[in-house]
Amino acid sequence: MLQAGIVGLPNVGKSTLFNALTRSRKAQAANYPFCTIDPNVGMVEVPDDRLAPLAKIAKTAVLIPAAMEFVDIAGLVAGASKGEGLGNKFLAHIREVHAIVHVVRCFDDPDVIHTLGGVDPLRDIEIISTELMLSDLESAQSQLDRAKTKAKGQDKEAVGQVAFFERVAAHLGAGKPASSLELHEGDAARLAHAGLLTAKPVLFACNVAESELADAAQNPHVARVRKYVAEHHGAGSCIICARIEEELGDLPPAEAAEYLAALGVKDSGVSQLIRAAYALLGLASYFTAGEKEARAWTFRKGMTAPQCAGVIHTDFEKGFIKAEVVSYTDLIAAGSIAAAREIGKYRLEGRDYLFQDGDVALFKFNT
């Protein structure tokens, strides 16, 4: 399963956010650096407002949402790429995840220690980014040296790798993440196999104070972060209040909704973050809906109908014949499967069909 790793400096709210995401107390959250050492891993449901209407059409009370994994990784510090603060170990944990949620502290609170003495989100972002780039630069140089050795033997791919890693090293040396490197022919595959930390997709989570949540867009720290990460990292951002979200985990859904409404907030910041991280990983959901359950299934964008059938069971992929498909929007507009069929919105798709987010499917297969 694809994983999103939660990173940031110590005491920015990573473990509190993880507890909110997983509705648990799995991660120790304390007011001192390195309270997390070994990464915590949690399965998180992906909020999806489409499930309830589908369940109503299917006349079922069982709703099963899609899920993804988040990993709570200990706080990095300046010098991590050289081993400071157990940095080598923590960088290795980041290397194992597929996308990064970078938590940035955007609140002032004298009772919560900041390891650098004050709140400056852009400085904090650059510390983490610099350590990841320094680690990548070392890795790129090692891979370049190996490619040069192979290239002496007239290895064609090695010659291409030499040119690629020379460009990567220069790019990283200029303080730019690998994700912003201009790719030439064949470079996409090389980048995918290079294992570079800054090549991973990243989402920045602005952690604000409870009193600022309803109007967080006016927070000057948030405004600076949004502008900076868009310009320098080509990345998106979301707003959370990790402390409130953790408290919501103790409340029934109805009470949690009332609490958010009292704060002037319609939706949970964590819900938005989960959906954004899901999309960041290149994931989408299709649905099955019947009397037993309405269920969301996770697939990677670009997967074919047989591959999506295989998400349910490998036998479905092996024996795939056809998929009966209707888009969620068309099904809801029609009001029922039968009505969708009558107006021609329910269709048969073959092996080459690429599934779309929101497809509602029934697979035909041989065992």
Describe this structure in words.
The chain has 14 helices and twelve strands. By secondary structure, it is α/β, with parallel strands linked by helices. Helix 1 packs parallel to helix 8 and helix 4 runs antiparallel to helix 5 (156-173). The chain starts with a strand and ends with a strand.
TL;DR?
The chain is α/β, with parallel strands linked by helices. The chain contains 14 helices and 12 strands.
Provide the succession of SSEs. Answer: EHEHEEHEHHHEHEHHHEEHHEHHEE
Amount of beta strand: 15-25%
Number of helices: 14
Residue share in helices? 40-55%
Mean pLDDT, to the nearest integer, reads: 87
Q: Nearest-angstrom radius of gyration? A: 23 Å
Number of E-state strands: 12
How far apart the termini lie comes to 26 Å
Structural class: alpha/beta
What attributes characterize this protein structure?
12 strands; 367 residues; three-stranded mixed sheet; six-stranded mixed sheet; alpha/beta; flat
Give the helices and strands, then pairings.
Elements: E1 3-7, H1 14-22, E2 40-45, H2 51-58, E3 63-64, E4 67-72, H3 87-96, E5 99-105, H4 121-151, H5 156-173, H6 187-194, E6 202-207, H7 220-232, E7 236-240, H8 242-248, H9 253-262, H10 269-280, E8 283-289, E9 294-300, H11 305-312, H12 314-318, E10 320-327, H13 328-334, H14 337-342, E11 347-349, E12 359-365
Parallel strand pairs: 1-4, 1-5, 3-9, 5-6, 6-7
Antiparallel strand pairs: 2-4, 8-9, 10-11, 10-12
Helix pairs in contact: 1-8, 4-5
